[in-house]
Amino acid sequence: MKKLLSVLIAFCFVSTTTARVPAGYRLVDVPLPRGAVTVLGLCHKPDGTLAIVTWEGEVWEYQAKTWTRFAENLMEPNGIHYDVKENAYYVAQKPELTRLVDTNSDGICDRYECVTDAFGVSGRYHEYHFGPVADSLGRKYASLNLAARGDFTVPDGKPKGKGGGNMSYNAPWRGWVYRSDRPGHFQPLASGFRSPCGIGMSPQDELFITDNQGDWVADCCMYYIREGNFYGHPASLPGRPDFTKEKVSSLSAADFAKIRTLPAIWFPREVIANTPGSPVWDTTGGKFGPFQNQIFIGDQRQSNYFRNGVEKVDGDYQGWCVDFLRGTASGPVKMSFDPQGRLWSAQVGRGWFSVGGKRTALQYAEWDGKTIPFAIHSATLTKTGFEVTFTRPIGEKITPVVASWHYHYYSTYGSPRVDEKTLSISNHALSKDRKTVSFDVPLTAGKIYALQFPEQESDGGAKLDFDTLFYTANKLRPAREPRASRNVGWDLAGSGWSRNDKRRPIPVVVKPLPAKECIMPAPGKATVLDADQWTNPNWKINQQGVMSRGKGKNSTKTAYGNARIHLEFRFEPSDDPNWRGQLYGNSGVFLMSGYELQIVNSYENPTFADGTCGSIYGQHPPRVNASRKPGEWQSYDILMKAPQFAKDGSLVEPLRATIFHNGVLIHDDVWVYGEVGGPYKRHGKRPLMLQDHKGTEVSFRNLWIVPDIDYDKSLDSFRRHFAAPLTALADVKPKVNVPSDRDPITILSPNMVRDMDKDGDMIITVDEFVGYRAAQFDPKDKDKNQFLDVSEFPHPNAFRGGDKNKDGKLSREEHLNIFRGQFQNVDVNKDGKITAADKQKNRKTK
Amino acid sequence: MKPLCTILSLLVCANWAASADLERGQTLYNQICFNCHGLHFDGGIGPSLKDNYWRHGDSPEAILEVINKGIPAAGMIAFETVFPESDRLALRDLIVAQHEGLRGVVRAVYPRAPFKGKRLTRALFDSVKPLSKTRLPENVYYFDRNGDGILRGTSKLHIKEAGEYQFTIRPIGRTSIFLDGKEVHYSDEKSKKNTHVNRKFELKPGIYDLEILHEEKTTHSYRFHGVLQRVGGKRFVLNGRSLQGNVPKIIKATHEAKVVRKWIDGLPPRTLLCLLPNQTLVAYNPVDGSVLKAWHSAAINQTPSLVDRSAKPSEIKGVPIPDVGSKLFEAETLRFLRYEIHLDTVHLVSLVDGEEKTVTIAPEGTQSFKLSVQ
User: Fold this and answer.
1) Is residue B232 included in any domain, yes or no?
2) A713 vs B132: CB contact, 8 Å cut-off?
3) B182-217 pLDDT, tens per residue?
4) How far apart, in whole angstroms, are the C-alpha atoms of residue A293 and residue A281?
5) Which among B276, B254, B251 is positioned nearest to B262, based on CA atoms?
6) Closest A-chain CA to B347
């Protein structure tokens, strides 16, 4: 009977797609284990063992062409990662990030550890949990989908459900990406995601997320993740301390546009992707052909693999995408390179339709090791156009066609291509090796460029499989690239920022807890750090026990490791404008003499994010800015765990700290990257130290320390030490240094721009301009006779000019024509739209 | 193609001589078969013999073949070496007699052009070559997302209760329904008259040939919806969801305890379902350290969640055990750490005010569990 059934199923009509695979590559099917299996994720162990996770909740291992089941009964695990050091799998189940351990080495998981479940799950459909991936420090990252329905959508004035925002924030941290560096740790990193089903970590510890087009997401895209940034879907914003649901609902697309970060690459819909999966980097060292270090992504609907590259332009990543192969059996969602350099993909076509047609599949692509397919290899933006490189020398005839467009940013599902046009090309040039073509095109920031090479042949007559590369030019090449930050021997892995990055979002200002709740007498087991405990006599201590910052650092006589520390500090108020920024009351608490908790006045005294009061200097800005005014006493409450080193001096566990500033939690079990000026160096207990720094006066009091405390056991209760709800100060606008995607229009008043530019893209089209005026006809037409007389339109000159048939009144059409004419005048550069480029003409020349 | 068509026609047209000896079949079933397939044919170790899903076919021939040859991979032996033919036929008839509703559902999809402007008749369908013809193991009609065309659905209709029946078809596109070759329903959304509630007709217990011809405009998915109902009685829904290649999945107790994480209506999404070897199921909420509910004679039906992108919850089957709800910890801080399986016992470990505490859930008797905290 089984045979009969399979014959019958084989008779089923499937739309056949012809695979398009570049020369030298082939796509190979791998049979899946027997039983109900829908593959959602996969990863490789260094020994080549493949592991997959399935929708049905199982983990299978594939070794020597044999499948064995490792774990089962999980809840929709949507991605798997193998941690070599721990010999354990991490899976992103719907309700939890879970570590799967086989303690008795029988090949079957027997211990299911909760790594984190600190995010919310409302149970509504679409609350997927994707990942994890890991950085080089072994920390895990995963992304959280918004819900498809629920109570908090952001329709932005559009009818709900009719394109007006359908994804909802039903539970904490939906629409966020987070990091977890050990069991129990959860650190939300960035917000604004809709359906972030692709997550990848570059070999340089840079986190990338792919998202799906829909409400607030114009098209499928890939974001470069920077801690604290917002990526566009406003339903996730209530997770931030500076937003509430009410505030989000009161804002519009133009407000969100100011704080959002643009995708590094847009993937044109129906051409490149509709549901892009996870990015992987070709680190095979050439085993997978001539595309080393490029980023490969598969698309669930298109059933393809496509290639991508990113480059930093004016400090931000942007880049290109081009199709690589088409015709996978089902829709790739997650990919992994095996040690032989073959690119595997977990594929699924369930629920959503995939071009490949099959319900699920497991396939890999492999290269024959010699054939160089003729393809567009990569592209780069120049100051005046593009440089496009091919894998092989190209033929005589070169006829590129370049088109550009941009997208709306609004609550509607997806955006059409806006202002799509073909551009003229000049200054063709071909490199000596005949592989690189460069040309000039008119460039505008914020556009997507389709660089097409129709009928392009190699010099041997080979044809391109895919002739169009898409470049996302958020920015144009600046005169000079910003300088890299000083290398101190550690990186902010996975955070996207560099040390002292001036563009990093400044912490949100919140209300501190009342002072009397923060002043804390030393408990019995504490060592009070009074005059006897300090070594530097330059730091004077008065009779009230107040110590003033003196010349040179000041260390305790005793060395400490794990500790619970309390101290109070105060800045001398200063009106001197020369003593601002980092010079207004600078000192620092050097935990174990090397790890700096910054002390600087951050009350209405802006400075860079990771130099704010409460920052782990150069590494972690405080979660929020809870500073008090200079002159008032402030407090730090610190629980810290000393770093652990192996015998050979290598780091086993970093210094961790949980810190309150004025009773507000500013660091939650934070991972310290290294000493303030350099990498970790093996050490034991070291004194607590206070820093001397140029700046206005700082004084200290009530310093005490409880040594040798068990950090891990004390952490949960310490977190609840102050029951302060986090309240952002009213009407504090998020101060984000990220530039808006387009410069503001200056030729019209800001109010007019807001009213006319409905989609908030800082481009006013003739329709938007005239449409706004058309709506004013009826309110002006007080007597409802369908005409405006002079009293109803009190602009005599315009009236005379507009009244073409001289009947002393304006018809609807005549009224509109006045504004069609006005549009021509405001559109100074005559490009058919009003943008920042339209500047007021110098009136003197009139 | 030729043998395939023969098989198909067998499926659709076969008439078999029913043996009347259902009693003999029931006796044998109660001696042997119930061990795996359940006292009420609703499954146990083996699959249900009552539901719509038949992984090895649901025709009398297919059922007899399975009885004769067994399913060695699933542990079912070949009964042709055990029972004489008459007994095997009796068993087959007993199983066929449990059928109710649609069986042997075949979905054929036809191109649109030949039917344009013409009445949907069987003769017209017979003259056109179908784009596809598929046996649907779920025994309900459904459509591929990317499917486009006109449906001709053929199946057997098993009626167990005599009475007055009627079809209710959603007024979308046009639909003709034939019973044993006679048109019993015709509706067209374009016609002014509301024809979707059909006239009533009498049916006697027996097996009928049911044929559905249906055309509708292409949208992103088909909207066909139809019900056959005995007036004042049972409903048979004609359409449903595909399991998309999955077989129904029921998580059952085994000799080792299991911890299952599935979305269940009415339980928090982080609930851990501890299924013990004695078929007792304990729902534990790791977030606040409480036992929520418990059942005996329990299993978890994951089938509903396998379709439709998991938008549907799984279901718990079992007998509720009353008054088990309890909060196990009075603590300021509680964080769930892990669970482990030790043979028939589940260990659930939490960090309670900084101290590790283990909740142990073990089977007790045949219908209960014992719980301890250390």
Assistant:
1) yes
2) no
3) 888 888 888 766 555 567 899 999 999 999 999 988
4) 6
5) B251
6) A111
Q: Is A552 on the interface with B (CB under 8 A)?
A: no
Beta strands in B204-257 (DSSP E): 206-215, 226-230, 235-237, 250-251
**Closest among A42, A41, A36 to A56, alpha carbons compared:** A36
Structure ipTM: 0.81
Expressed as residue numbers, the domain containing B205 is 101-237
Q: CA–CA distance from A564 to each of A300, A490, A815 (Å)? A: 50, 26, 74
Whether the CB of A459 is below 8 Å from some CB of chain B: the reply is no
CA-CA-CA-CA torsion sign (A825, A827, A832, A833) = negative
Could you tell me if A221 and A265 are in contact, meaning their C-beta atoms sit under 8 angstroms apart?
A: yes
Nearest-CA neighbor of A25 among A370, A365, A322, A287?
A: A365
pLDDT at A129 over 90: yes
Q: How high is the mean pLDDT of chain A?
A: 90
Burial class (CB within 10 angstroms; exposed 0-12, middle 13-18, buried 19+) of A559: middle
pLDDT digits (tens, 9 = 90+) for A731-767: 333 333 333 456 777 788 766 776 777 666 778 888 8
Residue pair A29/A329 in contact (Cβ under 8 Å)? The answer is yes
Contact A13 B132 (CB under 8 A): yes
CA distance A292 to chain B (A): 36
With an 8 Å Cβ cutoff, is B370 touching chain A?
Answer: no
What is the rounded CA–CA span in Å between residue B73 and residue B247?
15
Distance CA A192, CA A175 (A): 6
B101: left (phi over 0), alpha (psi -120 to 50) or beta: left
B chain contacts of residue A4, beta-carbon cutoff 8 Å: 7, 57, 62
Q: Mark which of B96, B122, B153 sits at the end of a domain.
A: B96
* Residue A95 to residue A144: CA distance in whole angstroms: 10
| Domain final position from B203, B237, B271 | B237
- Beta-carbon contacts of A844 under 8 Å, excluding residues fewer than 6 positions away, are none
Q: Model confidence at A822, in pLDDT bands (50, 70, 90)? A: confident
- Provide the pairing of β-strand B206-215 with A332-337: unpaired
Q: What is the CATH number for B154? A: 3.90.182.10
CB contact under 8 A, A73 and B262: yes
Q: Whole-angstrom Cα distance, residue A302 to residue A345?
A: 14
How far does the CA of residue A87 sit from the closest CA of chain B (Å)? 17
Chain A residues close to B340, C-beta within 8 Å: 110-112
Q: B269 and A36: CB-CB below 8 Å?
A: no
Kindly determine whether residue B270 and residue A55, on different chains, have CB atoms separated by under 8 Å. Answer: no
Give the pLDDT of residue A760.
63
Could you give the C-alpha distances from A21 to A155, A304, A336, A366, in angstroms and in order? 42, 10, 18, 10
Is B244 domain-assigned?
no
pTM: 0.83
Q: Do B119 and B221 sit in the same domain of this protein?
A: yes
Q: The tokens of A515 are what? A: 């002072």
Judgement on whether residues B213 and B316 belong to the same structural domain of the protein: no
| Pairing assessment for the beta strands A447-452 and A401-406 based on DSSP bridges | antiparallel
